[in-house]
């Protein structure tokens, strides 16, 4: 049956089913109606109609049937992530993981909700910085994915404080066993981490700047010079590493070397690369 006709048929079926369970204090959808809501929600989700799918999943989630509620919450979280409703996705993901704590798909959804809530917290002026760090760190501890590791590191760099430095579990370090590009990204994160530590009172700033310079130089050497036909992502990564080198040279007292290094940055990427360091509060030396 074509999907539009199937949706009409499901809507008609819903009209003829008892929706709510009698004798409950809140309106809960009867299992039969919840099953139909789930089928309709799946069709809507597959068509990219995420708001309507979310509404149908929400109806189904109020069923007393645990199995159906689990499926409905799964769909709600997926819809909320597609709708960029990350705070709500995290709330529903918590409820979902309580129902199925060992289900790999559920655990993956929970980690993804944490990751996206961390991204949201980075932009929200009303959210405590610790939320961005905590969520990103929990996401990468739940499932070790490259984007989760990068977000955890960037949150730490941006909101670096004495407590984060003192916590030995939190550190951005490169895994050089990875491929060239991934290893170079790791060295960029490592260098930014060392720059961020120099903002913290009591930290040896000279060592932080030296370690940062070493990381950026290793990343630049690893990625090499520009080659014909390479993509813009690689060009921007190289520019960020060079900007990091330039900042670090200036911080350790080699200002002219730093200025010369900055002049070597590809002009096509220089402005964006510098904004990256400004965004994460590691563009200037703090003495």
**Helical segment tally?**
14
Quick one: biggest sheet?
Answer: none
Low-confidence stretches: 5-26
Helical fraction equals: 55-70%
Number of domains: 3
Instruction: Give the class from helix and strand content and strand pairing.
Output: mainly alpha
Specify Rg, calculated over alpha carbons: 25 Å
- What characteristic shape results from the CA principal axes? elongated
Write the layout of secondary structure elements.
Elements: H1 3-15, H2 31-46, H3 50-60, H4 66-82, H5 86-99, H6 104-123, H7 129-142, H8 146-158, H9 162-166, H10 180-197, H11 205-223, H12 232-251, H13 255-263, H14 270-279
Keywords:
287 residues; mainly alpha; 3 domains; 14 helices
Description of the structure:
With about 290 residues, this protein is mostly helical. The protein folds into three domains: about 1-85, no CATH class; about 85-160, no CATH class; about 170-285, no CATH class. The chain contains 14 helices and no strands. The chain has helices at about 5-15, 30-45, 50-60, 65-80, 85-100, 105-125, 130-140, 145-160, 160-165, 180-195, 205-225, 230-250, 255-265, 270-280.
